[in-house]
UniProtKB/TrEMBL annotation:
It is an enzyme of class 2 (transferase). One of its GO terms (molecular function) is zinc ion binding. Residues 90-100, 117-127 have a biased composition (Basic residues). Residues 320-438 form the PARP alpha-helical domain. Residues 80-89 have a biased composition (Basic and acidic residues). It comes from Halocaridina rubra. GO terms for cellular component: nucleolus. Belongs to the ARTD/PARP family. This is Poly [ADP-ribose] polymerase.
Amino acid sequence: MPRRKAATPATDPNVKQENGNSVVNSQSDDRGSDSNGEQKTTRKRVVPPPVKTDPDEPTIKRGRAAKSKAAEKLAQIKQETSDEKETGKAKKGRAKKKAQVKNEDVDDSESTAGGKGAKKGRPKKTQVKKENDDPSSSSSVGKGKKSKQVKEEPTDDDTPLPPTKSSGVERVVVVSKGRAPVDALCPIAKTAHVLEEDEDIWDCMLNQTNIQFNNNKYYLIQILKDDSKNVYSVWMRWGRVGANGQNSLQPCGGDLGKAKKIFMKKFSDKTRNEWDMRDFFEKVPGKYDLLAMDYATEDTTDSASKNAKEKMKEERKKIECKLDLRVKALIELLCDVRIMEATVMEMKYDAAKAPLGKLTTEQIRAGYAALKKIDELILQGKYSNMQLVLACNDFYTRIPHYFGMKVPPLIKTKADIQEKVALLEALGDIQAALSVIDQPIDVNVHPVDQHYIGLKCEITPLDKITEDYKVIENYLLSTHGKTHTSYKLELVEAFVCKKDMEYERFKDVGNRMLLWHGSRLSNWAGILSQGLRIAPPEAPVTGYMFGKGIYFADMSSKSANYCWATQRSNIGFLALSEVALGKTNDLLNANYNANKLPSGCNSVKGLGRTAPDPQKFKKLSDGLVVPMGPGKETKVSNSQGYSLLYNEYIVYDPAQVRTRFLLKVKFNFR
């Protein structure tokens, strides 16, 4: 969830200057901070100067972004590849006798005639070309034409950054006749399938990034077996992420041993790991990393399987859904995989099926670990450019990104770290959501009912005539921060949430308050299924202003900013959680080690300059305190020149939290 980052008065755009002193506006929420994205800092390079000067207000996307040069270049590459395919059809007769082998990469010396073992008397070999998986790689970092600064030093702020433009990469439909899909660009995809032997699937996707050479590349290897006879081939495709790249199809006839030998040698050459030991894979510097493929995505099936699945889906829809219509609509929205994919693509993650697959939990953790190394370099302040380049290479290799033809940017500021932490948090929540969505199909249960059951969270609509609804609506409207002027919030629907796990483990240490928590739409299915979580040990500390914890706010708009709503997508969700704060450790300044609480304390409260008036607080029948607004000046000052604009509440034990309500809100932008 969103983690808090530290703010510095000199650079923080969330810092206002008042009487010579700076005032920082801090956000809160989500697994470490507000929004499973996390705090981000608006960058001049990304966002044009805002019309309004609200430091705590996310930038609004206006209109459709024009297609980037990178996207145009990618489209050109796809068209050229398509043209080459058409030309190749004229040679179909000869291709039947021997498969055309396209040139391998710099350390692959196979020729179009079949490699090193070509016999005398065969046609003259064509010259072996070096791998050019990155068409722009000739302009390596530090050489040739100087590239623009990747990012200028951003202000240190805990306000989330605006989402970046989607790369526009098209999702490639591939053919699957088993657990692994045949690469869509393979010429024998319709007549062959990926070899499976018990639990062994002879298919792998590799990824590598080298910023210094502008490489951001993949390597796909598959053993294919003919659908009707025991004939085998090895298919390989490599290139820049998002491009079709080059390929090689090596026929092996009935010799399965030969096919396996080719596959395993290529895997070893590229990774310096052995295929038989891939369960213990260790990333080697300068070599490719092994990515886990997503074989279960619905659009990765052949036409027959897809038609059967569509028919089953339609049949299941005829089954009566037992949910209230309002809950049914909620689950359909929260479990929409397209929204999840769009979210991570906006964050530059390559979510397309080709060329990269879905990451595993282990690889997400490896991404955190790689990011932590970058964070340590930045914090120590003394490092060589090559040290940072190599650390960034490791992160991008483990967590595939799409940058078109641009050089992968260095991750070199606190804001950059927080941006990538947000991505990893989103990937973690989406992975949790997909574990619910991709459960084995029960043909006797409506699909939405099955998703609801998988969340293991009781969700009930709250009628608008009830007292609880009126209290919640008043709480929402009365705690809108005065600096958040770009929109007004409107309560559309409210749902009562009860997750047995949260109620069973709840630790009531006293001082219970009903507090706000906001996150991206794509994250809520994961949050509801697993509860709010704390960042893993591998995560860098920079992303969290008061250490790794679960962040909340008592001002609704502070958390609402982390919904990332826009004028074109103006619906978001906020949680109201019961938080047992106990004795708070009140802090004015950021402290990455705030999770190491003083003896007798149960939580941290970051003191803000505006907060709900305690005289207006409302206590519910069970003793739960609702800090009703409006906000008022707290007179909190900081001798160092700045303080938070609004309160932050952080707990470091998930057992001190239980979600009570989920609110569907509309952002009415001015």
